[in-house]
Batch of 3 targets.
Target 1
Amino acid sequence: MSVLLTGGAGYIGSHTAVELLNLDKEIVIVDNFSNSKMSSIENVKKITGKDVKVYNADIRDKEGIDKIFKENNVEEVIHFAGLKAVGESTEKPLEYYDNNVNGTICLLEVMKENNVKKIIFSSSATVYGISEKLPITENMKVSAFNVYGRTKEMIEYILKDLYESDKTWSVVLLRYFNPIGAHESGLIGENPNGIPNNLMPYINKVAAGKLECLSVFGNDYDTPDGTGIRDYIHVVDLALGHVKSLEKIKNTSGVFIYNLGTGVGYSVLDIINAFEKVNNLKINYKIVSRRPGDIAVCYADATKARTELGWVTTKTLEDMCKDSWRFEQNNN
Ligand code: NAD
Ligand code: UFG
């Protein structure tokens, strides 16, 4: 019996692969390598000392995916595969709806044909849009306001409707907050192509001297230091949330929604200060105007994942900054 990881060569998928292999789970990875490299799988093998079956395939290739299901005794699917750049999604909506929404429908059709009805889906805190209250709980209304977020929201509805039509499905929707950090080995981590959009990869590039200066997008928000607040979560803690979710769907059916965050918000300046302190270096930054589409504050109430999954985060902000920088130094 194996767990199939779509997008398993990517940032979160590769860390989840490590945690599953550490528990001696059999895994199969499917990835089209549109945003990752085969070297991440090689590093997963190096970290765990275990072999991994990997297929270079697109989830929209139903025939190819069906063959993979038939060749492997797949019991559960963790569905990471997707495009994730918010800005790009606005410029290329059709590509995002095709890859994310159509890709998921293709995958679900193959799952149904092969009678595999357990799926964990990578959703995002972005589905909450501008939340009416903080911290954010799972029962708050969803109303994403960008194309990327809408693909996640649509997929959530598709999975809920699928369960309504057939109550033997077991679905976990994991709404990630802001994953950062890397495996402590420094072998796997986040390595976006080109100029990073997200805060931590950008800080890494400035620290490495590859980019000159970090732009802090606004210091006039209604927050203690004026900069935006987010719930940053170490990617290894996040990966362990998938391990717990697998246990949850093993013997139950239903749709289960969990926020995966720490429940603590940090500002942009908090992150810069922590990064400078633990890594003993200086980050060159300047305050610029707000980035369109950004919200002031976003952090999770993670009580539900704790009580229902027994999942708790253990990594600190210092761990996140130290591990991110170690990966950057090792890999670039
Ligand atoms: P990533 O880009 O590193 O990983 C995604 C992987 O999916 C990549 O390896 C890519 O090559 C693969 N892929 C994309 N389209 C595919 C397709 N059609 N067929 C097969 N493989 C395909 O991203 P990540 O940060 O690891 O994110 C994983 C998932 O979590 C994504 O669905 C993302 O939207 C979601 N998510 C990420 C974040 C974040 O901040 N990183 C936050 C919330 C949700
Ligand atoms: N920021 C800067 N300068 C930068 C980059 C970011 O000041 O160069 C600030 C942003 O304004 C924000 C914070 O740092 O206040 C975090 O920004 P990120 O771009 O790292 O993350 P976001 O919260 O905007 O979005 C991320 C992912 C989304 C996902 C969301 C989930 O990019 O895909 O987290 O909460 F949906």
Note: The longest helix spans residues 93-113.
Target 2
Amino acid sequence: MRIGVLTGGGDCPGLNAVIRAIVRKGESVHGDEILGFIDSWDGVLAQTFIRLDISSMRGMLPKGGTIIGTKRGSPFDHDDGIDRVRRCFDEQRLDGLVVIGGNGSLTVASMIHEQTGLPIVGVPKTIDNDIIGTDVTFGFHTSVQIATDAIDRLHTTAESHNRVIVVEVMGRDAGWIAAYAGIAGGATVILVPEIPFDIADVCEVIERRHQRGRYASIAVVAEGSVPVEGTMARREYALDAIGRPRLGGIGVDIAAEIERRTGIEARIVQIGHVQRGGTPTAYDRVLSTRFGLAAIDAVHDGAWGQMVALNGTEIERVPLEETVGRIKTVDLELLRDVAQVFYG
Ligand code: F6P
């Protein structure tokens, strides 16, 4: 078979491991030809790709990023987009396409499959871990580890100066990274997009902790967090290339408010794209490899319109349409029954 692969949306560690697994099993077991489309759907529309074979994937297991590039956006951004996708399948004689992406890319894959019947399989990817249908996405574990390593380091400098350090992590619509890195890093308070925060409550928790004596505080904040209406000025965001708020900076506002209200020195660290860079953890290398092997199996089983997923420890297939228009928000019990025990 001739199989296309594309990576869409924000990059993350593990993408190359998925591609490597697809290529290894596709070529060695099935004799497939694998085409890596450059820069996500743009490569499909323009029919720009590179041939991927086992030798070209050497050294890719631990390599962060994606060797075929990625972008945001979709064929639906163009009047003739769907026709050009069809033309690419015809002219490149594609027997299937593996879309490795987050909510946006998988929604596009589902819509194209539903509208055209084209043979498409999905692989769930995002550091945000906000994709319905899979227990976890590859990239998440690595981003949590990167954030936790940073928090561990920040504890010592916060304690040296008896300060509050606000650590802003990624997480647009869901606070999974903040929740896990906050718990793993021993945060005094964790803020997530799912629960609008009252800065007065945040300050009360921090003051309670500092009254114990020389206790520094780490506050972990997801970039998508928002204040309760009327409790704090709402930050205005510019829009990104696909019209979404370009997040980043809520931590700056929170640190300023904490220092103004409590008198305790506060500093801010925005981890930003460091969370998306570099080599995947061992956990993510294994999950990515399993997802890639399951994706090429799904292709050869003709499981079109489905994505591979993790259910417990098992790799399963779920309909792509299950992910459309939905976000897997953070488990609030995790925050209430685990994180909040250690607040203050
Ligand atoms: O979707 C993953 C993600 O890292 C979000 O957490 C973050 O808000 C966004 O991508 C950043 O997008 P970009 O890399 O396009 O600025």
Note: The pocket of 6-O-phosphono-beta-D-fructofuranose is lined by residues 10, 102, 126-128, 170-172, 223, 240, 247, 276 (CB under 6 Å).
Target 3
Amino acid sequence: MEFPRNLTMAQAFFLPLRLTPFHAGLRLVHRIIGAFKTFATVMITAACINTALAVRGKTAPYQSLFPPRGGLVLLLLWDHVVGPLVGLSNTRQSIKLRLLFREPFIEKRVRLDYRYVETPQVWDMVSRTWGSPEDKIMEFWNAVLELANLLISAGSVFVVLAAQVWWAALISVAVTIPLLYLAVQSGKKQYDAEKEVSRYTRKNQFLSRILTSREAALERKLFGFSAGINKDFRKEFDTARKYLFKVEARRFVLIKSVGLAGAAVSSFALFMLIPPVLAGTLSIGLFISLTGALFNMINNLSWSLPWQLSQLSRFREYIKDVNGFFALDEVKDAEALPAETPPDFESLEFRDVSFAYPGTEKKVLDGLSLKIEKGKRYSFVGKNGAGKTTIAKLMTRLYSGYEGEILLNGRDIKTWGMGEIKAAFCAVFQDFAKYQISLGDNIGLGKIRGADEEEIKRAADTIGLSEAAAKLPGGFKTNLGKIKDDGVDLSGGEWQRAAMARGVISPAPLKILDEPTAALDPIGESRLYEKFEEISRGFTTIFISHRLGSTKLADTIFVLDGGKIVESGSHSELMAQAGLYAEMFESQREWYV
Ligand code: ADP
């Protein structure tokens, strides 16, 4: 489904009616009829009391009790049978809406420009829209219907009252108006308070993740920081709690005092109803039922009304977020699968490329030029933070806000479709993902159009993962991680090999392996270098590393410093130059000889 752009409150109200007409219609009819229940309750209760009195005074036959009692039974049925049935339909509606909304929200998120991941405010907004939009819309819906219900109920009580003593009704209305005004104000204040508190909540969520998550469990134990973080957590929690309590207490006092004043004035109005009762112009039944209805109404107006109004303000803010989210820039055909046949890779060229990460000033790349050619092996070296990974991110079009040109086969990469880019490049980054699915599927993701078992085994073998796979209880079918009961965790090095195997199995002609040996021990590292030839055969490869063990195997080494390529050539050429590379290599020599 296409989610409406620039959704307004009115459109949001009609959305459930359009998407789930049966359930929404049912709920609407239920609420409209329900709105007149207050009036019906007043009249039926009055009739019950009046006929009971008449039967006792022998002025009416016993049977006259049946119609009003029948009315009471209907009211009970309405509450206890119709209500739950509609509730059931609401649950079905919620599920239906969830299915309908999930798709446009997920699709939008997939298409989002990667740069937004770097902007906390935007990412916060994206996260806020993520929590069940269907529930948000239904809460809004309920609030609107509840408000209509409240107003119709209150209106009907006033009408009945006005029909008896018009000025008593007038006084009650006069009390209700400031109550309404205060309700709106307090609804707004409550929403503002929640927004303020959400700042603390976000920090608290982060702290609680540190205190409870599996990833942090080891460091938590070793560094023993739980107590300190717990203290911070309590502090933030207390601040938020006190703030909310203050707002809540203020609201309580305000609403309760106005509510009390309302109750006092209503009591006075009711007092004024006594003479008509004595004169016989107002029945005892109506007097009693009106009394109950009036107090009930004051209570509802002072409590339910502000709450429903705050729901409306909350929804208005939510819609702003949703509209903001759908207006974010997208990457064209971001969700495209890698093209079935990858483009024939000829060359990749950076021409005078400069780049700073979104929201930052520092030029990570500053006029960088390099050329990668088919079938060769490349190595990018440079200190930590020199910009090696950044180059790989620009190649794969994760960012597009750079100056200069990046050409794939002589054509600007911005003119290639994302499906072609995905098919042309395969990158395994340093902060690779650990998918909590089977080991085989972890590897198979590298060839999304379908990898068979043989290929998966071959990739694992190439990358030195077969032995570890054989030890797992279910081999390649073993679930990894701890989500499933039978899940098994891998060592850091094994996870890295699984990620690398994705790169190996990928049919992309250009493979980028970023710090592929970071989590391996020195023996594992040198064994992997021995496989370098096998991994690279028939492909163009880029190894990114600040460890220089692999560089001797590369045809060309690019040395990065200050956002530029400062040296390039083979190992022996660069050693002969006695520049930065030679210096780095000398300082690491004892690791590798
Ligand atoms: P290398 O791979 O050479 O270690 P990177 O390309 O990862 O270096 O990073 C180069 C520089 O860019 C570093 O100074 C780093 O702090 C900065 N950097 C990396 N990623 C981001 C980011 N997402 N936002 C802002 N700065 C970043």
Note: The pocket of adenosine-5'-diphosphate is lined by residues 118, 357, 360, 364, 382, 384-390 (CB under 6 Å).
